[in-house]
Amino acid sequence: MVSEAPKPPTLRRSCQACARGKRRCDQRWPRCSRCQARRIDCEYINVPLTVTNTPTATSSSKNRSLIHTTTAHTSRPHQATTPRRTPTIPRLLPLEITKGYSAPVITFLINSMREYPVTFASEQKTHFIHPDLWPSSTPPVPIQEAYALCKQYASSPSQKHRALLHPILDQRSRSLHRQLTRASTFPDLLACAQALLLIQCIVLLSPSPYSQGIGSEQEGKYQESISAMLLDLGHRLWVQAPVQLPHTLSPRRAWLFAESVRRTIIVGFMLRSVYSLRTRNYSVRTPFVDALPFDVRTGLWDAEGVEGVELAEGVAGGAGLWGPSEGAMVSLHGYSSMLEQGQVHGIGPFAGLILAACRGRRVGEVAFPAVAAS
C-alpha cells in the first residue's frame, strides 16, 4: 500500500475561512475583521505578520527633546544648558497589540471624545488645545476653521442636520491632511493636527450614520486608511518636535507649547484606539504609545495665570511651577499604572480618559489604598 505523500508547506497568510470563501483577508490577530464580523472561529495555517506599514523613526534623540522635557524654554540663550535626561523612548515599532474592553468602557470613551468638538465650540479649549498657546488673540487659520465647523455642529438642532455636515467635514479633513504633510513650520503642523483631530472626532464618532454624502458607504466599517492617518499624525509630531523653543517665550507659554505637543500626540493615538473599539470591538495600540512622556502636573493646564499660581505657591521669581521639575515626567504607561493602582487622587477628566484608554477601567473602579492611621 502506497502511503499518501505529505502536503508541501504553504506560505499562505490568509485565514482558513477567507481562503475557503476566496475572500481577501486582512490577517488581523487573533481574528481577522471578516471572521470578527461574522463571529466565527479564525484559524491560520501560518501565524500572520501583525504589523502595519509604519515608517520607522529615524531622527536622533535631540529631535524629541521638546516632548521629553517639561519645557524647552530658557531665559539665557547664550549660556549652555544641560537638559535633564529622561529614559530613552524606543523607536516607533511596527507592532500592534489588540485588546478588548468592556462595553461600558467603550461607551465612556466614545462619549467623552465625542464631546471634544462641542467643548471647543463653547470654550475654545480642550484637553489638548489651550487658548493661551498662540501669541495673539487670533489663532492659526486651521484652528479658526475648525472652530467654525465645531460651532456649526454643536448648534445643529438635530442629528439629521448634523449629518448634513459630514460631506463638508470629509472634504476639510482631506485638506487638513494634505496641509499636515506640507507644513513649513512646526506650529503650522501642530495647528493642522489639532484641527484635524477635532474634525475626526465628529466624523468617526458621530452617533448617527450619514444620511447622504461622501463616505456614507463606509459608515460603521473599519478603514485601515483612517487608522494609518491617525498613526501618521502622531508620528509626524513626534519626529518633527523642535529641539528648543525661542527664549522670548515666557516659562508658562513654553510649558503650554510643550504640553500641547505631548497631549495632541496622546489624543491622536487615543482616537485611533477608540475608532478601532467602536468599529471592531477591540483596541489597536503600539508599544510606542505606552512609552510616550507625560507630565503628571495636570493641574497646570487649567491654571489661570502665572502670577497668581506662583504667588499662591510662594514662588519668587524664575520659572516657578512652569519650569522643569524633578519627577514630573513619566511614561504614559507609568502614569496609567499609577492611576490604576490608586496612587493618584483627585483624578480629573483627562486622566480618567487615559485610565480608560490605556487600562480599560473607569475611575469608579479604582480601589484607593487605605490611609494608615496616625
UniProtKB/TrEMBL annotation:
Record PROSITE patterns: ZN2_CY6_FUNGAL_1, ZN2_CY6_FUNGAL_2
Keywords for the protein's UniProt record, in alphabetical order: DNA-binding, Metal-binding, Nucleus, Transcription, Transcription regulation, Zinc
UniProt region (Disordered), positions on chain: 54-86
Pfam families: Zn_clus (PF00172)
Transmembrane segments: none
GO molecular function annotation: DNA binding; DNA-binding transcription factor activity, RNA polymerase II-specific; zinc ion binding
Name recorded for this polypeptide: Zn(2)-C6 fungal-type domain-containing protein
Species the sequence originates in: Aspergillus homomorphus (strain CBS 101889)
